[in-house]
Design goal:
73% of the residues lie in helices and 0% in strands. It has 437 residues and is mostly helical. Helix 17 runs antiparallel to helix 18. The longest helix has 18 residues. The N terminus is likely disordered.
Length: 437
């Protein structure tokens, strides 16, 4: 199949930079590049699934240009991507303020990462909006998983930019993260009208249809993604999942092998993104179908196997197939005998069966394994209350993260003594909702 999407001038430039870097580095010679080129090359390696090379290039760049605030800022973002907030803060505090706006935006991001949301808003709003590129601010909110803020910022500060690709791309991603897939599809189709040969836009469209359970349309869009870029491994991976969901095992296996070949996923691992879409939409039966495909056709590593068993248990629990759920939770415990969450979810099953004594035993086991889970004492106290074990109710309430006052305890006991079934059932439903993973 011929690739219809030829390399852009920028992609050609990046390929040439990578080739130059590889050749000179292999010969042990110095690699001279401008800071912007090194930063772009670093990102190119990341996007092509070579994060170690990206780290290598960034370290080399900082050795060559130790005073480059631009490179230092890029390194801080790399730390954030890896979840290393401490290193990010330390380096950010060493950067000399050039008043370009980039450092100010980074400071906002660090405040958000540190969960200082009000300070972040105050800091950002202390500058005139024109000091920042609205696309960059919206993208920062997206990277920090604040999709609604990204949308709000675009609509307030990016008037006149609505038809730009960067604007629409952020808007599409924000709608997707918020589960507004029909809105995301509408924006994605506009992006495809602008660039019908963008494999990434077609893949985004495919995943939106997948999230809406329209697997045939999702497969059509994914075919366009592969047609436009034969080396987009993620497209083969999504196409594998779609074929598995549609029951074409052979096609699913073929696409999975191609995805592995292109390093979209390692052998022994499974695709988390598309499965997460199914789980978020509570498509339990479809999620089970996809996971069973992986269990049958991939030799999953131990971590992936445990995660898959847990998710299967959650799906069956959601469907109220309690025996199947318990079976898979027990499989998880064979791999991870001290997995607190498994004991909690097994307790949920017993609560649904009104077997409160067994649920209490499991929750006590869970909190013994993880003493920080004092929130479980609150659940144990509620179950003890329903069982009219009032001494235990009071004991565990005091130990919980939200202890009741004596007056509140007496009021709760009175409710049970009066057989207020509506309040009791409402309370138990709240318990199950709070405990579900």
């Amino acid at each position: 199949m011929a690739k219809r999407n030829p390399l852009s001038d920028n992609e050609i430039r990046l390929n040439n930079l990578a080739r130059k870097y590889e050749e000179l580095h292999a010969e042990g010679r110095s690699v001279y590049m401008e800071p912007d080129d090194l930063a772009d090359l670093c990102l190119w390696y990341d996007n092509n699934h070579f994060p170690e090379k990206g780290d290598e290039v960034m370290n080399y760049a900082l050795e060559m240009y130790p005073d480059s605030s631009m490179l230092q800022i890029e390194q801080v973002y790399r730390y954030l991507d890896k979840g290393d907030l401490d290193s990010a803060i330390i380096l950010a505090n060493q950067i000399e303020d050039d008043h370009s706006g980039d450092l100010q935006l980074l400071k906002v991001r660090l405040l958000i990462e540190n969960e200082e949301y009000e300070k972040a808003d105050e800091f950002l709003n202390s500058f005139p909006p024109e000091d920042f590129d609205p696309i960059m601010v919206a993208n920062m909110y997206m990277e920090a998983h604040f999709s609604e803020k990204a949308i709000d910022w675009l609509k307030k500060h990016a008037q006149g930019m609505e038809e730009e690709e960067d604007y629409m791309s952020i808007l599409m991603n924000a709608y997707s993260y918020l589960g507004k897939y029909k809105d995301a599809i509408e924006v994605c189709e506009k992006l495809i009208d602008k660039d019908p040969f963008s494999a990434h836009y077609w893949l985004s469209l495919s995943r939106c249809y997948l999230a809406l359970r329209d697997y045939n349309k999702a497969l059509d869009a994914c075919d366009f993604a592969v047609t436009n870029d034969e080396e987009l491994g993620e497209a083969y991976l999504t196409r594998c999942n779609l074929y598995a969901l549609l029951g074409n095992v052979q096609k699913a296996k073929e696409n999975l092998q191609q995805a592995i070949k292109l390093r979209a996923v390692e052998s022994g691992e499974m695709n988390e993104f598309d499965l997460a879409l199914l789980l978020e939409q509570e498509y339990a039966e479809d999620a089970i179908k996809l996971m069973n495909f992986y269990l049958k056709h991939i030799h999953l590593n131990e971590e992936q196997l445990g995660n898959t068993y847990f998710r299967l248990g959650m799906c069956y629990s959601y469907m109220r197939w309690d025996n199947n759920a318990s079976e898979y939770f027990d499989k998880v415990l064979e791999i991870r005998p001290n997995d607190t969450e498994v004991f909690v979810q097994k307790a949920v099953i017993f609560i649904s069966q009104n077997n409160f004594n067994s649920a209490i035993d499991l929750l006590i086991t869970a909190v013994k394994i993880d003493p920080s889970r004092i929130d479980l004492y609150r659940i144990i106290s509620i179950l003890s209350l329903v069982l009219k074990r009032y001494d235990d109710f009071k004991k565990y309430s005091v130990m919980s993260d939200d202890p009741l006052t004596e007056a509140e305890q007496n009021e709760a006991i009175k409710m049970v003594e009066n057989n207020d079934e509506f309040s009791i059932n409402y309370m138990l439903e709240g318990v199950k909702k709070n405990l579900r993973y």
